Automatic annotation (TrEMBL):
UniProt similarity note: Belongs to the 6-phosphogluconate dehydrogenase family.
Subunit: Homodimer.
Gene behind this protein: gndA
Record's keyword terms, sorted: Gluconate utilization, NADP, Oxidoreductase, Pentose shunt
Protein name: 6-phosphogluconate dehydrogenase, decarboxylating
Stored SUPFAM superfamilies: 6-phosphogluconate dehydrogenase C-terminal domain-like (SSF48179), NAD(P)-binding Rossmann-fold domains (SSF51735)
Enzyme Commission number(s): 1.1.1.44
Keyword DNA damage: no
Length: 480
């Protein structure tokens, strides 16, 4: 077989086949391979006229069809599937060739694979591809790790197929080895938090204000014209306006209220715990999905204490005022949750030696991905205008929104608590904001407790050094 494809895709399930079509539509000659040949054949049969494809039914032929240095994009199941494919492809490649993992790999696996392939003089690039199947086909956001040398070859390819916003591709090299997959993981965590906050806003409007799903769809449409303008707000309105064909009921009422998850939110929280970075908004979102799926617990508690629907509470006197308060609380909570996500990016960068550019990350999230929003422009601007910004919370552009939301945020959380409508995302965000603002935190008491039961020592406000009280003796303070 003559080598004529400039890029290859292994793994032609929904993501891989759409990415391959996107590449072909942008003028690339795309080599194709899938373990089960039916998918390769189906892709060529159904979409072969969209560009140049070179299908193969053996990995050897696939590799032989690629021009050198070879660029192989793997779009297979994360974990063991990716290991199997990367190993098999690597055995057939030559020094200087490149394997790109576009799946949702755990960034630690990407670091391990990068080292293993580097020992064989092969480039390995972990690239987070966001936007689901629609994004893969029409322009995803692509968060690229690996070496700068690898990006010199890969950059033009990924930038040609990425979403474009204001003429700029939503793809960039973010850092070495696992940086791309780390950023993608945090992106997914932020997506969980965004969705949870929107869900809480809906619950408040439905069960505290008493609006119908169709009325709430109108509220979200209105919100989508302002600072909350985003893909997720837009699709929320669409879902809420949808009526179930079988029953004529609002679609939102016929869907079982048990949220699924594939694991990237959980990875984000696990990683944040080991980095010691509070991402309470993301954690509450993951836990809220978990609670929703614990049907047995929910049934038992409802049987024991009665069912709470929230709607028994009086409707606020000033409905438009309360709706606006919910909007402000949602925006303020969203700012906190993004600030936490970006804090986690900084912590990951420090831990793994990546030089992550926060403004660039926000920029490539503006298109193609699920969290795309006008809001991300403000984050990019904040980092551009204030290099070294310690927390997004302090960026002038968000200062006003947080300051202005204060009373509304508290009123909304208080109303929710009184009505028994759970708002873990709103209240965790408010607690994180309040926590950061407090002059004295009860952490001082915790340090005292730790010193008493475990001689863990403490520092003082008025002197340098570490101290310990001889709690079991005469309670003298000694230097530790
Ligand atoms: P998937 O269901 O995650 O994986 C199926 C693909 O993996 C098939 O092509 C399958 O080949 C291949 N595969 C699995 N184990 C294999 C093995 N041991 N050897 C060779 N091939 C193997 O597919 P997907 O939903 O298209 O996702 C692909 C990747 O993109 C995943 O890492 C996923 O996490 C990530 N991703 C998905 C989305 C999404 O919205 N779906 C969004 C972003 C990222 P066979 O056909 O032979 O079984």
């Amino acid at each position: 077989m003559s080598a004529r494809a400039d890029v290859g895709v292994v793994g032609l399930a929904v993501m891989g086949s759409n990415l391959a079509r996107n590449l072909a539509r942008h003028g690339h000659t795309v080599a194709l391979y899938n373990r089960s040949p039916e998918k390769t054949r189906a892709l060529v049969a159904e979409h072969g006229d969209e560009g140049e494809f070179v299908p193969s039914e053996s990995l050897e032929d696939f590799v032989a069809s690629l021009t050198t240095p070879r660029v192989v994009i793997s779009m297979v199941q994360a974990g063991a599937g990716t290991d199997a494919v990367v190993d098999a492809v690597a055995d057939l490649l030559e020094p200087g060739d490149m394997v790109v993992d576009g799946g949702n790999a755990l960034f630690g696996d990407t670091i391990r694979r990068t080292q293993a392939l580097a020992a064989r003089k092969l480039h390995f690039v972990g690239a987070g591809v966001s936007g689901g199947e629609e994004g893969a086909l029409n322009g995803p956001s692509i968060m690229v790790g690996g070496s700068e040398a690898a990006y010199e070859t890969l950059g033009p390819i990924v930038e040609s197929i990425a979403a474009q916003v204001d003429g700029t591709p939503c793809a960039a090299h973010l850092g070495t080895d696992g940086a791309g997959h780390f950023v993608k993981m945090v992106h997914n965590g932020i997506e969980y938090a965004d969705m949870q906050l929107i869900g809480e806003a809906y619950d408040l409007l439905r069960h505290v204000v008493g609006l119908s799903p169709a009325e709430i769809a109108d509220v979200f449409r209105e919100w989508n014209t302002g600072e909350l303008d985003s893909f997720l707000i837009e699709i929320t309105a669409e879902v809420l306006a949808h009526v179930d064909g079988a029953t004529g009921q609002p679609f939102a009422d016929v869907v079982l209220d048990e949220a699924g998850m594939k694991g990237t939110g959980t990875w984000t929280v696990q990683t944040a715990l080991s980095l010691g970075t509070p991402v309470s908004g993301i954690a509450e979102a993951v836990f809220a999905r978990a609670l929703s799926s614990h049907r047995e617990t929910r049934d038992a508690v409802q049987a024991a204490f009665g069912v709470s629907s929230g709607s028994a509470t009086p409707v606020p006197d000033d409905v438009p005022g309360f709706v606006e308060a919910v909007r402000r609380a949602l925006y303020a909570s969203k700012i906190v949750s993004y600030a936490q996500g970006f804090d986690m990016l900084s912590a990951g960068a420090a831990e793994h030696g990546w030089d992550l550019d926060m403004g660039t990350i926000a920029r490539i999230w503006r298109g193609g991905c699920i969290i795309r929003a006008r809001f991300l422009d403000r984050i990019t601007d904040a980092y551009r205008e204030h290099p070294g910004l310690v927390s997004l919370l302090t960026a002038p552009v968000f200062h006003e929104a947080l300051d202005g939301a204060g009373d509304a945020w508290r009123d909304v959380v208080a109303a929710a608590v009184r009505a028994g409508v759970p708002v873990p995302g709103f209240s965790a965000a408010l607690a994180a904001f309040d926590g950061a603002r407090r002059d004295r935190l009860p952490a001082a008491l915790v340090q005292g407790q730790r010193d008493l039961f475990g001689a863990h020592t403490y520092r003082r406000v008025d002197r340098e050094g570490s101290f310990h009280v001889l709690w079991g003796e005469d309670r003298r303070e000694v230097r530790a």
